[in-house]
């Protein structure tokens, strides 16, 4: 823990999004080390807060227990999101909230990553359901990581461009995190939080 921890503004919601193996987890860990834990809740989606969400996430991560149907997998993710959103809203009102993944991952991996195969439902239906679940919570800033440092089988064709498409379509402030060293990236993220007034000086 930093001797002079950063305090994020009450009510602020910051999201770390992007491709697997792009340095997102490393930077989240660095952020945890410098942010005052009393002011901020860090949470990974979809594992969330409860035994239900943690249990479902564990099932989805294991090859032998995850649903074979891709739509079933995405609906399981969305069930975890739906379970967590009311708690996320309360946490955001009482302090700051830092999310490891948002609904953007659901669309990027669950829809754009499916290509022509699809999910068996149309994009509008899937997007409407996803956005409706997350409607009570908006983000002030998304740090988007699209530069990978090693290969990952989850990063199939369409996911990266899907993230770009989603970022271009919404009003949320997005910082596209460039390919930098760990320390340079950390300094960039903290600098952007300051620039946008999300750190209490």
Structural notes for this entry:
46% of the residues lie in helices and 13% in strands. It has one domain (13-195): P-loop containing nucleotide triphosphate hydrolases (Rossmann fold, 3-Layer(aba) Sandwich). With 201 residues, the protein is of the alpha/beta class. The chain starts with 12 loop residues before the first strand and ends in a 6-residue tail after the last helix. The protein has helices spanning 24-34, 51-61, 70-94, 103-110, 123-134, 159-169, 182-195, and strands spanning 13-18, 40-44, 96-100, 141-145, 173-177. The protein is built from 7 helices and 5 strands, in the order βαβααβααβαβα. The chain has a 5-stranded parallel beta sheet, with helices on both faces. The relative contact order is 0.21.
Shape: globular
Give the C-alpha Rg: 17 Å
Within the largest sheet, what's the order of strands? 2-3-1-4-5
Number of domains: 1
**How would you characterize the largest beta sheet?**
5 strands, parallel
Class of secondary structure makeup: alpha/beta
Quick recap:
This protein has 201 residues and is an alpha/beta fold. The protein contains 7 helices and 5 strands.
Detail the topology: elements first, then pairings.
Elements (H helix, E strand, L loop, with lengths): L12 E6 L5 H11 L5 E5 L6 H11 L8 H25 L1 E5 L2 H8 L12 H12 L6 E5 L13 H11 L3 E5 L4 H14 L6
Parallel strand pairs: 1-3, 1-4, 2-3, 4-5
List keywords for this structure.
201 residues; Rossmann fold; 5-stranded parallel beta sheet; alpha/beta; 13% strand; globular
């Amino acid at each position: 823990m930093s001797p002079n921890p950063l305090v994020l503004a009450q009510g602020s919601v910051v999201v770390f999004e992007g491709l697997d193996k792009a340095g997102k987890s490393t930077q989240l860990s660095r952020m945890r080390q410098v942010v005052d834990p009393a002011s901020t809740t860090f949470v990974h989606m979809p594992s969330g807060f409860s035994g239900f969400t943690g249990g479902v996430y564990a099932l989805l991560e294991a090859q032998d227990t995850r649903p074979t149907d891709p739509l079933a997998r995405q609906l399981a993710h969305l069930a975890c999101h739906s379970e967590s959103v009311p708690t996320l809203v309360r946490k955001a009102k009482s302090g700051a909230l830092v999310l490891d993944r948002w609904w953007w991952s659901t669309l990027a991996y669950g829809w754009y990553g499916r290509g022509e195969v699809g999910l068996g439902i149309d994009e509008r239906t899937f997007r409407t359901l996803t956005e409706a679940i997350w409607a009570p919570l908006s983000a002030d800033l998304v740090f988007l990581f699209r530069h990978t440092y090693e290969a990952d089988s989850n990063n199939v064709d369409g996911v990266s461009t899907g993230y770009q498409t989603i970022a271009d379509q919404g009003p949320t402030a997005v910082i596209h995190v460039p390919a930098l060293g760990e320390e340079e990236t950390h300094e960039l993220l903290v600098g952007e939080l300051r620039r946008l007034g999300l750190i209490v000086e």
